[in-house]
Amino acid sequence: MSLLRKGQHWGTFSIVWHIFDATWQDPFQSAPLIKKYLMGLYKPIYHPLNKCGDHVIIINSKDIALRGNEWQKRVYFHHTTYIGGASWTLAWELHSKDPTLIFKKAIYSAMDGNLQRRYTMERLHIFPDENVPEDMLQNVSNQIKQLRPVPVKLCDISQEERDKIPRLIKYPIDYQLK
């Protein structure tokens, strides 16, 4: 076997660590993309019963964005298996309790409901902010591209760049905004 083929062989069977920034991303649109890396669907050796998936680190899960009024309309169901143990939690309540749960539940429901799903979810690491343990960051070798661009806030733009933006209205000096 040539050296090039050995490198391809090693690359096919290796476990890669990916990082995904969830700032302003919809978890339900991002879940199929992350599922592809978690399960190893992009690898040529993929088989449903094979452990060929990769590790995925999701950062900034507290800054996710849901469409429209999904924060008030989306409901999560839980049952304790006792009589009267059913509870329904709104998305904003669940997010305020634990900012990682909405993303975790979205990816879990995007996967096929087989016996491998729980073991695959063990390779998913979600953090509410950018504080990731250093030993995990050393393993990261790929970044998953975001689906939607993150808008830039006006406070993040420098004063020189703000002055270059054309003004539509120039108020008089003595004008008072109400």
What does this protein look like?
One of its GO terms (molecular function) is structural constituent of ribosome. It comes from Apis mellifera (Honeybee). Belongs to the universal ribosomal protein uL13 family. Keywords: Ribonucleoprotein, Ribosomal protein. This is 39S ribosomal protein L13, mitochondrial. This protein is of the alpha/beta class. The chain has a single domain (16-153), classed as Alpha-Beta Complex (Ribosomal Protein L13p, Chain: A), CATH 3.90.1180. The chain has eight helices and six strands. The chain has helices spanning 3-13, 27-39, 70-73, 91-97, 101-110, 117-121, 134-137, 159-164, and strands at 17-21, 55-59, 75-79, 86-90, 124-126, 140-143. It has a four-stranded parallel beta sheet with strand order 5-2-1-6, covered by helices on one side. Strands 3-4 form a two-stranded antiparallel ribbon. α2 (27-39) packs across α5 (101-110). The longest helix has 13 residues, at 27-39. The chain is flat and about 80 Å long. The N and C termini lie far apart (77 Å). The mean pLDDT is 92.
CATH topology: Ribosomal Protein L13p, Chain: A
* Largest β-sheet summary: 4 strands, parallel
Number of strands: 6
CATH class: Alpha Beta
Element-level helix/strand string: HEHEHEEHHHEHEH
